[in-house]
Design brief:
mainly alpha; 2 domains; Four Helix Bundle (Hemerythrin (Met), subunit A); 239 residues; two-stranded antiparallel ribbon
């Protein structure tokens, strides 16, 4: 039971009280699906989770029970116990006709969010944060033949760039967009050449952000996201 990559703080940001149970299930479930909470990760203690999410313990327990019943979490009793992300996640459901029919809208939403991320990151990203993102890009070069691992680090890079803006809402929007894209991207093939080209685009985005060049950063991000859209257009099954 090892704790792996740290999840972004927004995974455990306060939820809206009107839909606390549903939002908690969605927040944690999306984080697990994206790999922000990898298999084997131990969740914070209930008291800390309740404080960070701003919810009652009864609401948290209901959400954790729902995620356990779905196979995404498991509870371990006794010394060294707690709530852990399951080592084996439930099999993904086949894509719905609605998902396939509306995939361009998903791409549009991601484009709108991540162009804003690129623009604000040129103003706000620290050198240390960019160094960490450069290291993720370097890691991706070693994972071109392992798409599952590549995708997890890819998500961390995009969400990490959003975190450099200091906007929790933008990080949440980016995480949501990445979650929707994961359902689409999982339906297509991922040859190493495509992943290598994608990561070269990551590096151009990060270089432009480091140079504080907003126009170049947004252009590089648009190129990157539209490249994914072109691949989806060619490889997605028909609705």
């Amino acid at each position: 039971m090892t704790e792996v990559l740290p999840a972004p703080d927004t995974v455990f940001a306060p939820v809206r009280s009107q839909t606390a149970f549903e939002e908690t299930v969605e927040r944690l479930g999306t984080a697990i699906k994206l790999g922000l909470l990898p298999p084997g990760t131990r969740l914070p203690a209930e008291r800390e989770l309740c404080m960070r999410l701003g919810i009652a313990r009864s609401t948290l327990r209901q959400a954790l029970t729902a995620l356990a019943h779905s196979g995404q979490l498991r509870a371990v009793r006794g010394r060294g116990g707690g709530t852990f992300v399951a080592d084996r996640q439930p099999a993904a459901q086949p894509p719905s006709p609605e998902l396939l029919a509306g995939w361009r809208e998903v791409c549009d939403q991601r484009l709108a969010v991540e162009l804003g991320v690129a623009a604000l990151a040129t103003e706000r990203a620290s050198a240390a944060a960019l160094d960490a993102l450069d290291r993720l890009a370097a890691t991706l070069e070693e994972l071109l033949g392992d798409f599952a691992s590549y995708r997890q680090i890819d998500i961390l890079l995009h969400v990490g760039l959003a975190e450099t803006t200091g906007s929790s809402r933008l990080v949440m929007a980016c995480t949501e967009a990445q979650g929707q894209m994961t359902g689409l991207i999982s339906l297509i093939a991922h040859p190493p050449a495509v992943l290598s080209s994608s990561n070269a685009q990551h590096r151009r985005i990060l270089a432009a952000v480091r140079d504080r060049d907003e126009a170049r950063a947004m252009a590089a991000m648009a190129e990157h996201l539209r490249g994914t859209e072109h691949v989806l257009a060619g490889l997605l099954p028909s609705a």
